[in-house]
Amino acid sequence: MKKQIYVTKPYLPPLQEFVPYLEKIWQNEILTNNGPFHQKLEDALCDYLGVNYISLFSNGTLALITALQALGIKGEVITTPYSFVATAHSILWNGNVPVFVDVEPETLNIDPKKIEEAITPKTTAILPVHCYGNPCDVDAIKEIANKYELRVIYDACHAFGVKDEHGSILRHGDLSCISFHATKVFNTFEGGAIVSHDIETKKYIDQLKNFGIIDEVTVAVTGLNAKMSEINAAFGLLQLQHIDEILMLRSQIDYRYRYALNNVDGIICLPQAANKTKNFSYFPILVQEKFKLTRDQLYNKLKINGINARRYFYPLISDFSMYANLSSSNVKNLPVAANAANNILCLPMYPGIPQEDIDVIVKLIVEEN
Predict the structure, then answer these.
(1) Domain that holds residue 135
(2) CB atoms < 10 A from the CB of 46, how many?
(3) For a designed S-S bond to 68, which of 51, 63, 73, 291 qualifies (C-beta 3.0 to 4.6 A apart)?
(4) C-alpha distances in angstroms, 94 versus 63, 90, 114, 194?
(5) Which one-letter DSSP state was computed for residue 217?
(6) pTM of this prediction?
(7) 188 Cβ contact list (under 8 Å, min separation 6)
């Protein structure tokens, strides 16, 4: 059987390092409901990321859903079609209408100029995505939000540890949501979080993720059960000890790909934002017409050779059946996003991928040049 190289693998520290955490959980006999490891991880993440408040969640999708609920968003929410479907699903789950606008050609982040064109009297919020961990134009989005009195929730699921020149990218907007899924730079098996700016908002979010319970006899709002368990939180604390090494290894892989593919005709390595602290969460390439193979032909060639690259994000969210009838889903309004979706390919990127595997991937691409 041919060796399989996957687009990503979760980083797993040595098992013996996790055993003491499990033993402590057994000793505490607390498995969930804001236990000691949960509290320690919230504090540790605030320190590491440089943010004020974090509320841990069982996954990033529930974090997005709760963020919209916490701000009382009702009406139209402007967002990007170029993302994982959870971004738009969170809008539908809150009974709101997603309005898709096009993305910028270089970053593939939501285009601020298109945001302003899409605003109507029903618009109440903007839900941008820091795509592949590259920051959105946060200043332009803030200016638009202030001008039209809109709320901003960032889907920052790719952006763990990313900074701009003034600090964490997670400090922007009214709220930011992170994912700690197994495929992410930092994982807790499954998990997620909402970053907020004040203690009252954090308290309300914490109520919403715990059924809306205020105290033993009071339920004030229709909340969810979205709490993170002690085992997940403990694993997150262990992962945090390794995160700097993880980011360093990812940066080295990114450099190797860029160096090897930089001069391949018809292959564009998506540029990264300058003057930013990056997390190298993905390695996307755009396969252009000048390349001898189409994106799908290259995808299949790699797959035949045991390399499971991913067409991420393809198709666009706006192409799925529950969104296709929206007027904003018309592909004529989304040419940049549609072009990216039809030409994008994410190459394997994870700490521990052997150099010889990278060499094989590069060789299969370069030989078509």
Answers:
(1) 15-238
(2) 15
(3) 73
(4) 12, 7, 24, 17
(5) T
(6) 0.97
(7) 41, 180, 228, 232, 233, 235, 236, 239
64 and 102 inside one domain: yes
4 in any annotated domain: no
Do residues 216 and 250 both lie within one domain? no
Spatial neighbors of 18 by CB under 8 A, at least 6 apart, are 234, 235, 238
Report the first-to-last Cα separation within the chain, whole angstroms. Answer: 28
CB 234 within 8 A of CB 222: no
150: Cβ contacts below 8 Å, ≥ 6 apart = 119, 123, 124, 125, 126, 144
> Are the C-beta atoms of residues 65 and 57 closer than 8 Å to each other?
no
* pLDDT reported for residue 1: 64
Is the separation of the CB atoms in 58 and 191 below 8 Å?
A: yes
> Same domain for 220 and 258?
no
User: Do 65 and 198 belong together in one domain?
Assistant: yes
* 92 within a domain of the structure (yes/no): yes
Same domain, 218 and 326: no
DSSP 3-state assignment of 70? Answer: helix
CATH number at residue 314: 3.90.1150.10
Q: Mean pLDDT for each consecutive 10-residue tract of the chain (369 residues)?
A: 90 97 98 97 98 98 98 98 98 98 97 98 98 97 98 98 95 98 97 98 98 94 97 98 97 97 96 87 97 98 98 98 96 97 98 96 94
